[in-house]
Amino acid sequence: DTEVTQTPKHLVMGMTNKKSLKCEQHMGHRAMYWYKQKAKKPPELMFVYSYEKLSINESVPSRFSPECPNSSLLNLHLHALQPEDSALYLCASSQVDGGIFSYEQYFGPGTRLTVT
Amino acid sequence: GDSVTQMEGPVTLSEEAFLTINCTYTATGYPSLFWYVQYPGEGLQLLLKATKADDKGSNKGFEATYRKETTSFHLEKGSVQVSDSAVYFCALSDPSGTYKYIFGTGTRLKVLA
């Protein structure tokens, strides 16, 4: 099974709201990723977790707060977002062994976020 | 730094036509190479991969060969279908084995019946 699931599929939120995006995988992967994708662009990496620890933060504004409660789950907490944060948010996972990341990443279907 | 260059789209073909989407890369080491496909409103799906020179990745009638001499990984399909209409991304993994993926800009394919 190479499935990564994400909820919700769509989310509309106001600039003062707090919401969370959820991602889950059951492939035993120990690396998980958040990407942001704007229309007609490739995905942009936001965060990387390795063995449930935050490894990489690609200079993402603090209004985005990731969390990895366990090896299968990844959350992205959203607060005080701006309209320009509207995008497709993709979760991905991959294997990692001793700091060496497996080459292929498996992506979820994404959450379409609209900030009003 | 490492980079991936894809041909500009959109590419419009008639059903059963031959497809080529060009992808070239620059990398200091020996990256793995990938093609991902994104259907409208969906996430990215791994289409195929190649991990070393002269490897051929294939899946669902699509093929790509890792050509180190020309630093290319062109995607081909002998007979496209309307259902192949999507955006195709070429990507490479950081040769040093870190987390980083380098994506191309994506090529939109439209297949007409």
Could you explain the architecture of this structure?
The complex is a heterodimer of chains A (116) and B (113). In chain A, strand 10 and strand 11 (100-101) form a beta hairpin. The relative contact order of chain A is 0.33. Chain A is 0% helix and 59% strand. The radius of gyration of chain A is 13 Å and the shape is globular. Chain A has 116 residues and is mainly β. Chain B has no helices and twelve strands. Chain B has 113 residues and is an all-beta fold. The N and C termini of chain B lie far apart (41 Å). In chain B, the strands form three sheets. In chain B, strands 2, 5, 6, 10, 11 and 12 form a six-stranded mixed β-sheet that branches. Chain B has a four-stranded antiparallel β-sheet with strand order 3-9-8-7, with no helix packed on it. Chain B has a two-stranded antiparallel sheet with strand order 1-4. Chain B has strands at residues 3-6, 11-14, 19-21, 23-26, 33-38, 44-50, 56-59, 62-65, 75-77, 86-93, 101-103, 107-112. Chains A and B meet through strand 5, strand 9, strand 11 and strand 12 of A and strand 6 of B.
Provide a concise account of the structure shown.
The complex is a heterodimer of chains A (116) and B (113). With 116 residues, chain A is an all-beta fold. Chain A has strands at residues 4-7, 10-13, 18-25, 31-37, 44-50, 53-57, 64-70, 73-79, 87-94, 96-97, 100-101, 106-107, 111-115.
